[in-house]
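FAQ

Q: What does a record look like?
A: Structure on top, sequence underneath. For example:
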């Protein structure tokens, strides 16, 4: 039997060092000037020098050049009792020619230690940061930031950590740098980037999303007042930063990032209007609308309105287009865009198809209704399968349900899209390409997609005058579509004069306020004035 060994209880300092070393490869202390005063651990493997050899050296010697500004920002901003990290740093290789290695750095300013800062350094970046392509020492481009933040959100979610997105407005920053030298501007931006990186989760850093506007992912408990104070100090008090928070819910990394992009895009586009109502208010509105739309979708709390589409030959009803309505007298465009950004558009499109199905079941046999489907939804296999399965329950409705493909998102695989459209047409659906002329890929769409109708974007129609450039463009589009075996629809026809003009250009169908606004039910008859002005004919146009 092995005798029990009695070990003398170590002093508190030794015990604390043991505990610290258990969680790090190297523990050390630095002064406010960055001089190392104490070191213990695997210094040799990290730096190529012994523990004692590190004493009296600068801690900047441990990391790559791009991380020196980060270390400076940590020393400047770290308050008594505050801990920051782990942050990803690039370790300076002890031997020339070796590949760069990453480390995890954490710092803690214990009040009792005065001007000394306790540090822990381990080989390997914080979880998930090895493959994140950040730009150390610089602000990231928005697309780089989005990709890196998505990865970090996923890692934080697995670790059970809660993060948030802070949007930072530094109004007047560009103007304050206008009279500075190029070198001074570069140094100021480096200090600002380092400060943002020190305040970010795992040292991810920040992105400049527009002039004087930045985005940063941070732990949910981080202080905005502290960030604003530090950034203000970096600019010498010339700028008063303002921050707004966008909570990032756990378990939905992709939607978190899409909500972030939507908030950033919206803020950039709003410009002076956003500034007038307040930066924080603009972001809070996005958060509220996101929550509201998810609730609408869960409860199917929206209505469908039905706008008549008529034959321009005789002004007789051809079919209805189902339009989503979320609030009375309010355009649904912003809500639809939000659904697209949150990747909820497929669920919403399916809810619209279900609504159109119910309307067709309740309507007379001659009633036909178009349901809008985003190009993004069309390309999702599950949505396509669900659509086919839903209409298979009532196959006779397929010939009465036109599918109108919206072009809000460009289709990147037109051959695959055409295969899907061909399957839908073979099942009996009529397919319409919506908003032709609104996107750069429109001509390629005509070349590769076989559809029954092409709807000409309303911006051409609203401003069109006889002999105008818009009229010439529409005339040739109509001729091209006719040669390809496609009929055309003109939307946003608001006056009798415009109706006559589009008809003279050969457009087949039309819709707009001159005929009727969207109706609560798919029931409509042409007014007597329209019928009197229409050309009489006994032939009405079929689906084609």
């Amino acid at each position: 039997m092995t005798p029990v060994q009695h070990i003398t209880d170590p002093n508190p300092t030794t015990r604390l060092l043991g505990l610290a070393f258990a969680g790090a490869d190297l523990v050390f202390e630095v002064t406010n000037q960055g001089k190392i005063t104490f070191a213990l651990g695997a210094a040799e493997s990290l730096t190529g020098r012994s523990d004692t050899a590190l004493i009296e050296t600068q801690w900047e010697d441990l990391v790559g050049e791009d991380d020196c500004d980060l270390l400076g920002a940590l020393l400047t901003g770290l308050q008594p009792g505050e801990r920051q990290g782990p942050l990803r740093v690039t370790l300076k290789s002890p031997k020339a020619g070796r590949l760069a290695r990453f480390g995890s750095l954490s710092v803690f300013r214990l009040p009792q230690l005065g001007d000394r800062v306790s540090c822990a350094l381990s080989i390997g970046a914080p979880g998930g940061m090895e493959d994140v392509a950040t730009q150390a020492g610089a602000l990231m481009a928005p697309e780089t930031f989005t990709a890196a933040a998505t990865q970090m959100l996923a890692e934080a979610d697995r670790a059970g950590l809660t993060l948030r997105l802070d949007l930072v407005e530094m109004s007047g920053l560009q103007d304050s740098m206008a009279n500075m030298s190029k070198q001074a501007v570069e140094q100021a931006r480096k200090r600002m980037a380092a400060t943002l990186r020190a305040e970010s989760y795992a040292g991810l850093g920040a992105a400049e999303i527009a002039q004087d506007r930045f985005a940063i992912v941070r732990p949910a408990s981080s202080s905005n007042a502290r960030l604003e104070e530090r950034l203000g100090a970096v600019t010498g008090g010339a700028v008063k930063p303002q921050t707004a928070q966008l909570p990032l819910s756990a378990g939905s990394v992709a939607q978190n990032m899409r909500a972030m992009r939507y908030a950033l895009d919206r803020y950039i586009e709003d410009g002076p209007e956003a500034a007038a109502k307040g930066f924080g208010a603009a972001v809070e509105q996005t958060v509220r609308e996101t929550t509201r739309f998810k609730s609408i979708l869960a409860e199917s709390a929206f209505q469908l309105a039905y706008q008549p589409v008529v034959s321009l030959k005789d002004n007789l009803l051809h079919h209805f287009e189902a339009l989503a309505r979320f609030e009375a007298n309010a355009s649904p465009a912003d809500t639809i865009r939000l659904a697209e950004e949150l990747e909820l558009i497929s669920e919403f499109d399916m809810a619209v198809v279900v609504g159109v199905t119910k309307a067709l079941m309740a309507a007379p046999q001659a009633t036909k209704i178009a349901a809008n489907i985003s190009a993004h939804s069309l390309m999702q296999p599950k949505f396509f399968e669900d659509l086919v399965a839903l209409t298979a329950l009532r196959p006779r409705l397929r010939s009465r349900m036109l599918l109108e493909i919206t072009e809000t998102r460009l289709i990147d695989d037109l051959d695959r899209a055409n295969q899907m459209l061909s399957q839908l047409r073979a099942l009996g659906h009529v397919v319409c390409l919506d908003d032709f002329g609104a996107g750069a890929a429109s001509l390629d769409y005509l070349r590769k997609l076989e559809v029954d109708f092409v709807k000409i974007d309303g911006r051409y129609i609203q401003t069109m005058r006889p002999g105008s450039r818009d009229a010439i463009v529409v005339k040739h589009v109509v001729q091209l579509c006719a040669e390809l075996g496609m009929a055309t629809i003109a939307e946003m026809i608001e006056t009798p004069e415009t109706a006559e003009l589009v008809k003279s250009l050969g457009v087949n169908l039309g819709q707009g306020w001159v005929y009727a606004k969207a109706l609560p039910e798919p029931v409509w008859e042409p007014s007597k004035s329209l019928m009197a002005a229409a050309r009489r004919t006994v032939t009405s146009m079929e689906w084609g």
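Q: Is there anything notable about this one?
A: The radius of gyration is 32 Å.
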